[in-house]
Amino acid sequence: MRTIVLHLARTSRNEIEAQLSSLRATASIPDTLYVEFCDAQTEEMVSLAVDVSGRVNGKSEIISFVQYFLSRYPGTVTDDYTDHEWSLGEITNDVKIQGHPFFDYQGWYEELKGRSN
Predict the structure, then answer these.
(1) CA distances from residue 38 to 4, 41, 42, 105 in whole angstroms, order as listed
(2) Regarding the domain delimited by 2-116, which CATH topology (the fold level of the hierarchy) does it fall under?
(3) Cα–Cα distance between 78 and 19 in angstroms, integer?
(4) Per-residue model confidence as pLDDT tens digits over 21-62
(5) Strands (E), 12-116
(6) Which residues make beta-bridge pairs with 97?
(7) Is the torsion defined by CA of 106, 107, 108, 111 positive or negative?
(8) Where along the chain do its domains lie?
(9) Do strands 33-37 and 45-52 pair parallel, antiparallel, or not at all (unpaired)?
(10) Which of 78, 75, 26 has the alpha carbon at shortest distance from 49?
(11) How many other CB atoms are found less than 10 A from the CB of residue 61?
């Protein structure tokens, strides 16, 4: 399983729960994404952990999910591969950090595999 953590500002848990319910009602959240609220919540900051099933590539699903929320709320997102907090602009413009774009599990796998040979 691969995970991203989405940090959304100027919102509340109730507001994000309503957004998630709406998305689920229209089947806009694929069944390969597992969304949970993180414990570290503040009055105006909500964090979501989103796991991606290993059954699928998941990159397009994650990018769509992240773009949906970061286009509505200020915030950042982290992935399993760097400590970088990605902005919507960086993801949209395919910016590379440490030579990789956001959620580049295949690229990291190939790079690390090459180092071990």
Answers:
(1) 11, 7, 11, 22
(2) Alpha-Beta Plaits (3.30.70)
(3) 20
(4) 999 999 888 889 999 999 766 778 999 999 998 888 889 999
(5) 33-37, 45-52, 75-78
(6) 100
(7) positive
(8) 2-116
(9) antiparallel
(10) 78
(11) 19
In angstroms, the CA 69 to CA 19 distance is 9
For residue 7 the two structure tokens come to 């940090």
Residue 49: both structure tokens together:
């952990």
Burial of 47 (0-12, 13-18, 19+ CB in 10 A): buried
> Residue 81: which of 110, 60, 61, 55 has the closest Cα?
110
Q: What is the pLDDT of residue 44?
A: 82
Q: Which residue has the tokens 């769509």?
A: 64
Q: Does the pTM of the predicted model rise above 0.85?
A: yes
Structure token digits, residue 98: 């440490």
Residues β-bridged to residue 6: 48, 77
